[in-house]
Each structure stands twice: as C-alpha cells, then as structure tokens.
Amino acid sequence: MFVRVFALSFLVAAASLVVAVLYGGPEAVVLVAALGVLEVSLSFDNAVVNASVLQRMSAFWQRIFLTVGMVIAVFGMRLVFPLVVVAVGAHLDPIEALQLAMNPPAGGAPFFPDGRPSYETLLNDANPKIAAFGGMFLLLLFLNYICAQREVTWLSWLERPLARIGRFSMFTVVIALIALVLTAGVLAPNNKADVVMVSGALGMATYFLVDGLGAHFENEQPGQGPSRAALLTGRAAFFGFVYLEVLDASFSFDGVIGAFAISADPIVIALGLGLIGAMFVRSITVYLVRRGTLAEYIYLEHGAHWAIGALAAILLVSTGHHLNEVVTGLLGVGIIAAAYLSSIVHNRRHRAPAATETELEHLSLGGDELTLRGDTGTLSSLDGGLPIDRLTVRGDALPARDKLNTEAY
Questions:
Q1: Residue 196 phi, psi dihedral angles, 5° rounding
Q2: What percentage of the chain has pLDDT greater than the value 70?
Q3: What is the pLDDT of residues 305-347, one digit of tens each?
Q4: N or C: fewer beta carbons within 10 Å in the chain?
Q5: Are 272 and 35 within 8 A, CB to CB?
Q6: With 0-12 CB in 10 A as exposed, 13-18 as middle and 19+ as buried, what is 375?
C-alpha cells in the first residue's frame, strides 16, 4: 500500500528536482528539496485533520480532493496567492508582481536602488493580515473540537473541563474574539492594528460560513442526518471539499512566508512547497485514510488539533513578532508524536492477552467441569445424560479472534 500511495509523490518530486536543475542548477535543487521538507514538517498536522474529514467523503469527492484540490494547493496557494497579495498591497497588476518576484534586488536587498520595495519585503509587510486571517480560522477550528463533548479524550485533565465549559452557547466565539482583540491591541504593530482586526474577523466569518454550510447540507442528506458513519455526498461533500481547501490555505500561510528564509524565487517556492511538499502531504492524508490510522491510534486526531491550536497561537503572535519556522514545524510534529506514542501505550494496555494457536484433541469430564484440549476444533455432541448448566471453553491458548466463551442450556 505504501508504494501504491506514495509512488506518484516520489515521481513528482523527482521531476521537480530535474526541473530545478534545469532552472537553477545544483543550488536550486538543494533549495527545492529544503522547501519540500519544510512544507511536510509544517503540514503533517494538516494531513491528519484532512484525513479525519476525507474519510467521511465519498470516493468521487476523495478523487476531486486529490486532483482539483492538488491544482488549487500547488498553483493557487503556493504561486498565485502570494502574487495576488503583493499585487493588491502594492497596487500592481499581476504581471508586474510576477516581474517583481522574478527580478529581486541585487544581493537579496529589501529595496531596489530607487527605493522601491522588493517582492519579499511587500509579502512580509502583508504578513500581519495573512497571519490574522489564518490564525483566527485555525483557532476556531481548534476551540470547536476541543470544547466539544467526546467519549475519548487525550489530555483528559484539560479537555474534560474545556468540554464542560464549552456547553455554554457562544463560548468559543467569545474566546476567539478576546484573542483577536488582544492580538490587534497588544501583539500587532500600531499601524497594523486595524488591518489585523478586519483580517481576523474575515477569518472567523470564513470559518462560520464554510463550517455552517457543510453541517447544514450534511444534516439534509436523505436518510442519513449528521451520523459520522455516513459518507458525505452532493452539497455536503462539496462544502467539505471547500472546508479542506480553506484549511490547507490556512496551514500554507506560514509555509509561504517562511519559504523566504530559504528562497525568494517564486519558481523555486512553487516547486518545493507546491509540487513536492503539497503532493506528499496529500499522499500522507490518503495513506492515513486507507490504513485506518485514526481509528487505530485514537489520540492522533486529538494531537493534530492541539498542534492546530499551537499553530493558531504562533500565527497570531507572528502578526507583530517574527518566529522561526523550524520551531513552528518541530512543535507540531512533537505534539503529534506525543499523541501517537500515547495511542500506542493505550493500545498495549487494552490489547487482549496474546496466545498461541492450538486445536482440540481430548475431552474429559471431571465433576461438573468439561475440559477440552487437543486437535479437534469442534464439539458436535455430548452423551451420557449428565446435566450441564454452563459450558465454558477457555481459549487462552488461541488467537484473540478464535477465543470462545459461550453458554449451552
């Protein structure tokens, strides 16, 4: 399964590295590879959350996510989106923004000799509004997951009290609004406070719109309702797809901005973040779905949402303070690794006792106890007229699937 799921990603990665060699030589290859690793490390929690949504979608919409969604992720968010941000912020048309990106100042300077800001400078200047939008979207996603009543909890000492408080209507919205006001008033630069407030409010509105429409159409599915066991189709699946794309966009913000610490070349960024990084993130998502990993490792989804909460906090802080992207990536991976290890410990504690397979060959009767052992696998009859009120065949030496504990009257 691993080869089948990841084969296309490895082929795309190899093709991207070949293009990088032709475009910029060995240096470009190193930069593209580094950006691919950065994207995967920053977006592993994204893959886990994607899997939790994708596993509920029909096969058709899963294919749409992996095809159309891939085009949006690569060319939309990793190439076109930064150009649009720069064009709007600097009042340029897209072609001028592309020319600005392709022709940076000598030596990577932030300004041209005539005083014009570089593409990287313009994009960094737009970071507060981008980070506020993505941070508020992810914060609401985190709060609405953690503050919901769940049978399974990971950090129970914290999640259970939050779930009890979350019963109060609009609690998550109040917390999100307080976080936005603090971000704009304390963390963001004074000349960016109004922009951060508006962008954060738009991030919240986007979450409410996409999540609300998805839930509405999910409840309207004929004969299915909101059951998590039902596969999403039609409009419900469409808004699930939109939700995944907005989620991917929110996760990609820090990667796009952080990419400039490695390279400001939009072609290198598109090859590394887009083709290599985004492709592997989607392969990881598919692998998690087909292996049933979220069901097997029950705390993994919890860990991913805690990582989302951490990323939301980092994005909000980054509206006024620069944070190292390596720290961001390692923090998310570390939280998910902790959830994965906790799931392994849980599975071992609740695993049925291991045993070796044997067969029944001997039957003996002593008192009221019937003992079966040996090489015959079935018991067809018992003669002798002796009353047996309860028959228990113990299978401690059998695999868990073959154990038998039954009653005969």
A1: -65, -40
A2: 78
A3: 898 888 889 889 988 887 776 677 678 788 888 988 999 998 8
A4: C
A5: yes
A6: exposed
